[in-house]
Design brief:
The chain is of the alpha+beta class and 131 residues long. It is 41% helix and 25% strand. Strands 1, 2, 3, 4, 5 and 6 form a six-stranded antiparallel beta sheet that branches.
């Protein structure tokens, strides 16, 4: 009961803050889904708005396109820059080292994800986003 009283008086921004390991946890779940080409698991990692935008079938095609660029991904680095809800990661793939941008919402669901060899390019082929 005391916890609910405290929560009632906390500002929404404090209540909506994700934990310090949330981004890393999501990145590891993403890595498992990616390497097993599990479009259904990837779909489950997305925010509700992205789940509506991307069907499981569309994610299956996207994963195939992404994996053509990377093949297996050995690991993601820890974020080289970012915050609790977004980060820039190194992607250590079978064919080369790439970059990843990952952003999550307050519910630890993906709202933006991209794997690329040029983060400044406006044309990203391996990306999931709301725009």
């Amino acid at each position: 009961m005391a916890a609910s009283l405290v929560a009632a008086f906390l500002p929404m921004s404090v209540m909506a803050e994700v934990g310090p390991h949330a981004l890393m946890n999501v990145s590891q779940e993403l890595l498992r889904a990616y390497n097993t080409e599990d479009a259904r698991a990837l779909h489950g990692l997305l925010s509700p708005a992205l789940q509506v935008k991307y069907s499981v079938e569309a994610l299956h095609v996207l994963l195939a396109q992404c994996r053509a660029m990377t093949h297996e991904i050995d690991r993601f680095s820890i974020p080289s820059w970012g915050g609790r809800r977004y980060g820039f990661f190194g992607v250590y793939a079978e064919l080369k080292v790439l970059e990843m941008i990952l952003e999550i919402d307050e519910n630890e669901k993906i709202i933006h994800w991209a794997v690329t060899d040029d983060v400044t390019s406006g044309d990203q082929h391996c990306t999931v986003n709301g725009s």
